[in-house]
């Protein structure tokens, strides 16, 4: 043997030299190895350390050390053991297993006889040595490594891993991301020195230099490609077989490299410019790293570019010294527009992702496929690509009959394949920065959308799972606004359902509609129109156009004025003086000190333009004999007010009555500079009478701040509604309609006064005669709170035996002259305790209903109870024929007091009985004729008054004029709406359905009929659909219930006007209210008490016109016809404007840029032109987390930051967004992100940190934050706190805290009143829970459990956790080492690695190729040699190894010296495929 031949190292097949565990062993006699050598001298495992290696003349697979080209052949047999004798185990001297196999095949005895090893598990004393050689220890180490690598439990956590987690961090929830985490992730993606990829880049760099020198450009550019691509694995494998080194997996590790040399690209400028304006010079290529990894699918590629520098050492025109990469946006921006999009990646600090990956992120993240599953998806695809390469490599090894092949690199091996999928943090950081840069385009596109018909609603559910700080939700509601095409028009994360948080959002929407030249919003659908209407009308003035609100008095007869009462309207000074003087004459020239007072009704009209002070235009006066209106627009000073008018206004002997009369006189005093009026108002008994207070005195209303419309309806039983006028109608010339309204308004005040004058006063102390009048209606009052209503009982016996307990014990209460006996008829406050009885009002009412009270606590009461607010119309169900004993009397008085309205929630998915008919429940617009057509006789509807005359020429003039007048009247009625803020039918139905039992047998029928009662189908569409159904023998009733969605797309439906709808729904509710369940009688009536209360509110909504379809506004779009020639409609808010699923991309900035280029080029784009280039319209619209309102911030001491308005090209970190190629992965804390989006100095977040808990607890009970007035019980003590003052004080402390505090657990953050109130409610709930458990009886009941849970015996010693790093005792070790298979055994060939040649101990041995046979079918064993059968193998233990006769396979050898061996089959078992088991 050649003494210079390298000594092979004992490793298992294909192991790369130098891999495995790092060994820190001293050198004991062996010379040190060269770490840079590709071939290391090793000692055979079976030979003593001092034995010289055997010589191997003939061909050898060991190649001399040389540097080959990158794609040249690699040595595929590094480190294979070379043995010149029969191999034996170093520790026992036992012959190797394959030695006996060879003996049986060759018929010869082994060359060396070895003693049989002792039994397994025994340790012979004569074998024990106190020392171990270096070679033996290395051998032992490699065997242990093999055991670890082939352990079937090796993939399970062994318990010795350091987990990056902390209990303290988990409890305190320390925020923020490790700032080096993503940098480390990017750093591991760089190619290591001496790795396969690094060698590829070095060779590529040299190759590019040669190509540019020779051809002036890289060859890939000349062939029309940016990529320098290695050969496909198929061709790389095929070429390597012809090389001297044979197959090498390194050929499959190479990656595509994107070559980006800007100066060599088409259209590149001769010299690139620096920021300073001076030319740049080329500065070579990068060295560390040479190329940047770009994450892509299915495998990463690398980006290689050059550098530029503004050379400061130039002799002429020296530069500033700034350097640029060729991938810098500044360089790319100087290239032609058609070249810039070719750049394939977005670059981060030390990494990059392909644009395709970024587009996939945008697409998947928008569909609930977040960063974590996306990172896993990329990792899975890349691992599968790696597995395909390994499969191709191993299949080629078998196909070409290669022996001693190298092991394929693992995916993570940085010296080999070097796979590096992106981490979750890296993906999240890139996407966040990308969206932050392009957010302005998204917001501009949303701001450019129309909003003719709006739908606005709060959503609560999904916010429970997103946006939390230390367990506390940052937001409690999301407010969404959709337009008529179901496009998102506005979105805001809010702190509560209060509309004050979205006021700025609506203001921006109005600005966006104006900037995009869209019409204003005509109709708005919401889930609570009655409470939100005033808010929306105050922001969007278009929602008030032609709106006549419906009140409970709208349907009353209109107010009429006595035509005999003279009216006068004057405007010039002389006429005003004459008219006022005539009024004084009528009043008899009353002196200021006269005891005879006169009454004058007074009203005014004012205007206030933006930026101007309030101006007085009209003064209306009504006496018993005349009505006068003075236009005083020009009277601005005291001298302008003539004496007679001043006398009427200031004379204390003339009582001025009116609605809000005090405020009316204050306006007159300020406008006309009459301080005398203020002096009169401040007297002890000013000469004024407010109609609201007067109505309360007469028992008409409980609330004195009632409108004039309500006063007219309740007192006069007449409807008084002001007509709609143009803005500022009183300063100019008034019309007859306006004049008539001025006269009628002040006359209405006068008529109300006269009507109230005749009524008895209520709410006063009883007079002596009333206190002894039997049946006198009284109200029992404690302090100022009415607690019960009753009747005086007289005469009486002078005492009352009051029941005091359940045993009917009584207490005698005397009725003294200062006391009265009453019979309670209605309890207003059930829990109010009556002092004389010592019992609650509810107890007294339930035990005789008689009470002795102090007479001074009784107030008079009218026969008709006063109305609470004048806005609720009462509805009572008809009394059922046979009411059950437990039925509650459902009276209007009970409903009037109920203030509980269930919160509006999303639709319950369990309501399957409703979904069949309302999934596409879209309202339709009908003419008034169509409405009547559905509710009246057809003969009355289809008659045309002009049809009998044949043509218009034959119609008499009087008939024609009558028809025109009726038409104009219908048009006039259609021009007005009760409201443009409407209720959504879905939420309307849900409010009642969610209160009904779904188990009731009538539920599904009611849900279906509920929808049928609301929506009326179009006649022509219905007839057409029914004809098609009859033709195909399909039942109409079946189609309505089972296929409602399909019908609703082909039949327009209409919600009729309020009168028709109210009648239909009242009938529906009366029918179903008391239906009993036929399945379970105990369920009782269908409508519960809560449902009956809700019915009252629902009918009031209908009566006010909030549910009916708006007249004159179409809510359907005709999309086309189906195969049955039926019309197919799209309702407002269904799908989108096209009615089909969108097919395209969402990079609207690219779309707009294409349109601009197409216009400049004079061609049409390949897609339809967009309605508007939305990204080219500068707006201030925003979505998501909105800036805090400046008004709100100013009131709460929150320091705000200016909100930028970008009118030019949008930039992100000083780079135009459309030219961005660099993104930042620097982690941004949640607090910083919120602070930037909210545009405040410190984030506005809920109470969540340890320091905030301490501060809240220490200051919540401070006296300055307490509200005065009523004291609430402990569980409602949050009502006593003024949270607005508390928030103001809190935010001041935030502004004063030190800026050096960076720990989030020690900082204070801005708060809104809602944050503090929510946290206080939580603390009260926790306190109530603790109090409940600490109560005497409860504490005693829990004592036994507490002792068990807190005892010392409540601990056990749990069995230790299982560690899978060691195979448990008693189980068989299935590794090859335990079966005495030598480490040098070739698992593929069934024999040791031996060089071929005449000196080989096995010159005639032909290794068989390997055939991988999948299961099933099973493999049938074949004879091992002719006439001899080997021992059977256990199919459940590892691989089964079989061989076949050489004649079964005929394959031409592809390599010199190779022969066709007998095939051998490897069959995978149930166990881990990496384990090998051979049965003896």
Describe this protein's structure.
One of its GO terms (molecular function) is nucleic acid binding. It comes from Mycena metata. Residues 9-25, 1468-1480 have a biased composition (Basic residues). With 1480 residues, the chain is an alpha+beta fold. The protein folds into seven domains: 1-152, no CATH class; 191-422, no CATH class; 439-516 and 1149-1197, no CATH class; 567-757, Ribonuclease H-like superfamily/Ribonuclease H (Nucleotidyltransferase, domain 5, 2-Layer Sandwich); 768-861, no CATH class; 906-946 and 954-976 and 999-1131, no CATH class; 1240-1345, no CATH class. The protein is built from 41 helices and 41 strands. The strands form 13 sheets. Strands 1, 2, 3, 4, 5 and 6 form a six-stranded mixed β-sheet that branches. A six-stranded mixed β-sheet has the order 15-18-17-16-19-20, sandwiched between helices. It has a five-stranded mixed β-sheet with strand order 13-12-9-14-30. A hairpin with a 4-residue loop joins strand 7 and strand 8. The radius of gyration is 47 Å and the shape is globular. The chain starts with 96 loop residues before the first helix and ends in a 13-residue tail after the last strand.
């Amino acid at each position: 043997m050649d003494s210079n031949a390298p000594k092979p190292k004992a490793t298992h097949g294909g192991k790369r030299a130098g891999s495995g565990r790092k060994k820190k062993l001293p050198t004991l006699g062996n010379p040190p190895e060269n770490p840079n050598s590709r071939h290391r001298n090793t000692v055979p495992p079976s030979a003593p350390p001092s034995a010289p290696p055997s010589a191997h003349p003939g061909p050898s697979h060991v190649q001399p050390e040389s540097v080959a080209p990158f794609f040249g052949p690699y040595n595929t047999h590094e480190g294979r053991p070379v043995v010149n004798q029969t191999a034996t185990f170093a520790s026992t001297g036992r012959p190797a297993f394959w030695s006996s196999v060879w003996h049986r095949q060759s018929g010869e005895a082994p060359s060396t006889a070895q003693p049989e090893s002792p039994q397994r598990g025994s340790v012979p004393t004569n074998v024990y040595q106190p020392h171990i050689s270096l070679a033996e220890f290395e051998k032992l180490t490699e065997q242990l490594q093999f055991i670890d690598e082939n352990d079937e439990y090796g993939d399970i956590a062994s318990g010795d891993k350091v987990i990056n987690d902390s209990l303290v961090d988990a409890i305190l929830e320390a925020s923020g991301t490790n700032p080096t985490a993503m940098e480390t992730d990017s750093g591991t993606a760089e190619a290591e020195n001496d790795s396969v990829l690094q060698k590829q880049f070095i060779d590529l760099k040299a190759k590019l230099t040669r190509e540019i020198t020779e051809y002036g450009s890289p060859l890939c550019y000349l062939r029309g490609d940016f990529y320098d691509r290695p050969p496909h694995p198929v061709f790389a494998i095929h070429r390597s077989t012809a090389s001297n080194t044979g197959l090498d997996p390194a050929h499959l590790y190479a990656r595509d490299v994107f070559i980006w040399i800007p100066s060599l690209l088409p259209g590149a400028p001769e010299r690139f410019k620096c920021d300073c304006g001076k030319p740049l010079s080329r500065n070579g290529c990068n060295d560390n790293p040479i190329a940047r990894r770009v994450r892509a699918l299915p495998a990463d590629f690398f980006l290689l570019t050059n550098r530029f520098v503004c050379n400061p050492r130039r002799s002429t025109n020296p530069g500033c010294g700034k350097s640029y990469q060729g991938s810098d946006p500044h360089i790319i921006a100087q290239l032609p527009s058609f070249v810039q999009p070719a750049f394939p990646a977005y670059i981060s600090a030390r990494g990059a992702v392909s644009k395709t990956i970024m587009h996939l992120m945008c697409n998947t993240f928008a569909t609930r496929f977040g960063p974590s599953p996306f990172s896993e998806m990329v990792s899975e695809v890349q691992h599968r690509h790696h597995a395909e390469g390994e499969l191709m490599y191993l299949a080629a090894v078998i196909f070409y009959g290669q022996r001693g092949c190298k092991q394929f690199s693992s995916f993570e091996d940085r010296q080999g394949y070097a796979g590096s999928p992106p981490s979750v943090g890296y993906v999240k950081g890139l996407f966040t920065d990308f969206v932050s840069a392009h957010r302005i385009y998204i917001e501009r596109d949303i701001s450019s959308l129309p909003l003719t018909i709006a739908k606005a609603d709060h959503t609560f559910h999904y916010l429970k799972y997103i946006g939390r700080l230390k367990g506390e939700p940052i937001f409690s509601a999301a407010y969404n606004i959709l337009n008529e095409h179901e496009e998102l028009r506005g979105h805001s994360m809010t702190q509560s359902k209060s509309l004050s948080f979205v006021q700025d959002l609506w203001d921006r929407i109005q600005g966006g509609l104006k900037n995009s030249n869209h019409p204003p919003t005509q109709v708005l659908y919401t889930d609570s129109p009655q409470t939100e209407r005033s808010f929306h009308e105050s922001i969007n003035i278009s929602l008030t156009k032609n709106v006549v609100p419906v009140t409970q008095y709208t349907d009353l007869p209109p107010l009429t004025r006595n035509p005999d009462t003279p009216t006068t309207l004057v405007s010039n000074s002389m006429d005003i003086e004459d008219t006022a003087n005539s009024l004084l004459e009528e009043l008899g020239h009353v002196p200021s000190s006269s005891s005879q007072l006169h009454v004058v009704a007074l009203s005014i009209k004012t205007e206030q333009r933006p930026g101007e002070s309030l101006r007085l235009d009209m003064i209306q006066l009504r006496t018993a004999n005349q009505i006068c209106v003075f236009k005083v627009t020009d009277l601005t000073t005291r001298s302008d007010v003539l004496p007679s008018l001043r006398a009427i206004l200031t004379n204390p002997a003339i009582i001025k009555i009116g609605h809000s009369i005090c405020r009316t006189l204050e306006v007159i005093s300020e406008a006309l500079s009459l301080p005398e009026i203020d002096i009169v108002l401040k007297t002890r008994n000013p000469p004024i009478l407010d109609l609201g207070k007067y109505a309360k005195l007469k028992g008409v209303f409980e609330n004195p701040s009632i409108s004039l419309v309500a006063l007219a309806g309740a007192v006069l039983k007449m409807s008084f509604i002001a007509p709609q006028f143009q803005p500022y109608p009183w300063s100019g010339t008034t019309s007859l309609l306006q004049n008539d309204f001025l006269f009628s308004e002040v006359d209405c005040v006068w008529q109300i006064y006269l009507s109230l004058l005749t009524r008895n006063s209520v709410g006063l102390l009883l007079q002596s005669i009333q206190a002894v009048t039997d049946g006198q209606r009284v109200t029992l009052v404690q302090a100022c709170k009415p607690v019960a209503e009753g009747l005086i009982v007289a005469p009486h016996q002078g005492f009352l035996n009051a029941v005091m307990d359940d045993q009917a014990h009584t207490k005698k209460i005397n009725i003294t002259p200062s006391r009265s006996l009453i019979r309670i008829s209605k309890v207003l406050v059930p829990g109010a305790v009556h002092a004389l009885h010592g019992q609650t009002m509810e107890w007294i009412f339930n035990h005789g209903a008689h009470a002795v009270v102090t007479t001074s606590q009784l107030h008079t009461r009218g026969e008709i109870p006063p109305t609470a607010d004048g806005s609720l119309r009462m509805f009572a169900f008809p009394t059922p024929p046979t009411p059950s004993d437990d039925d509650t009397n459902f009276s209007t008085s009970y409903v009037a007091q109920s203030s509980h309205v269930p919160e509006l929630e999303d639709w319950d998915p369990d309501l399957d009985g409703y979904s069949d008919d309302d999934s596409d429940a879209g309202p339709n617009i009908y003419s008034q004729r169509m409405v009547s057509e559905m509710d009246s006789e057809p003969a009355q509807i289809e008659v045309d008054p002009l049809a009998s005359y044949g043509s218009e020429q034959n119609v008499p003039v009087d008939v024609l004029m009558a028809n025109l007048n009726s038409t104009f009247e219908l048009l006039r009625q259609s021009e007005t709406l009760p409201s443009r803020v409407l209720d959504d039918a879905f939420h309307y139905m849900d409010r009642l359905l969610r209160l009904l039992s779904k188990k009731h047998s009538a539920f599904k029928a009611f849900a279906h009929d509920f929808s049928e009662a609301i929506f009326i189908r179009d006649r022509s569409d219905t007839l057409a659909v029914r004809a098609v159904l009859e033709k195909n023998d399909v039942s109409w009733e079946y189609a309505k219930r089972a296929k409602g969605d399909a019908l609703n797309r082909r039949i327009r439906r209409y919600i009729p006007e309020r009168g028709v709808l109210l009648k239909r729904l009242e009938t529906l509710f009366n029918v179903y209210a008391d239906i009993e369940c036929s399945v379970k009688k105990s369920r009782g009536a269908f409508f519960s008490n809560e449902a009956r209360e809700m019915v009252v509110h629902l009918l009031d909504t209908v009566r006010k016109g909030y549910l009916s379809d708006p007249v004159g506004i179409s809510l359907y779009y005709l999309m086309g016809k189906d195969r049955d020639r039926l019309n197919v409609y799209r309702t407002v808010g269904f799908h989108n404007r096209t009615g089909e699923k969108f097919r395209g991309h969402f990079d609207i900035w690219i779309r707009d840029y294409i349109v601009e280029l197409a216009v400049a080029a004079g061609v049409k784009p390949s897609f339809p032109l967009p309605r508007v280039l939305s990204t080219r319209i500068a707006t201030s619209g925003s979505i998501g987390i909105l800036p805090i309102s400046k008004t709100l911030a100013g009131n709460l001491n929150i320091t705000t930051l200016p909100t930028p308005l970008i009118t030019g090209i949008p930039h992100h970190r000083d780079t135009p967004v459309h030219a961005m190629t660099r993104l930042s992965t620097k982690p941004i804390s949640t607090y910083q992100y919120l602070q930037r989006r909210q545009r405040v100095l410190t984030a506005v977040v809920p109470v969540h940190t340890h320091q905030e808990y301490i501060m809240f607890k220490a200051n919540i009970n401070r006296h300055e934050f307490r509200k005065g007035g009523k004291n609430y019980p402990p569980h409602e003590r949050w009502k006593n706190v003024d949270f607005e003052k508390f928030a103001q004080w809190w935010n001041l402390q935030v502004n004063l805290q030190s800026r050096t505090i960076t720990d989030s657990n020690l900082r204070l953050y801005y708060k809104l009143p809602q944050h503090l109130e929510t946290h206080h409610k939580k603390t009260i709930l926790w306190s109530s829970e603790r109090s409940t458990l600490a109560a005497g009886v409860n504490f005693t009941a829990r004592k036994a459990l507490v002792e068990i849970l807190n005892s010392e015996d409540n601990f056990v010693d749990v069995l230790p956790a299982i560690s899978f790093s060691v195979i448990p005792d008693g189980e068989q070790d299935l590794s090859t080492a335990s079966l005495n298979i030598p480490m040098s055994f070739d698992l593929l060939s069934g024999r040791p690695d031996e060089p071929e040649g005449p000196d080989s101990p096995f010159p005639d041995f032909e290794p068989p190729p390997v055939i991988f046979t999948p299961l099933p079918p099973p493999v049938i064993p074949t004879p091992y040699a002719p006439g001899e059968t080997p021992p059977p193998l256990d199919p459940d233990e590892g691989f089964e190894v079989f061989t076949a006769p050489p004649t079964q396979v005929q394959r031409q050898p592809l390599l010199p010296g190779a022969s066709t061996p007998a095939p051998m089959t490897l069959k995978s078992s149930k166990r881990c495929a990496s384990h090998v088991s051979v049965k003896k």
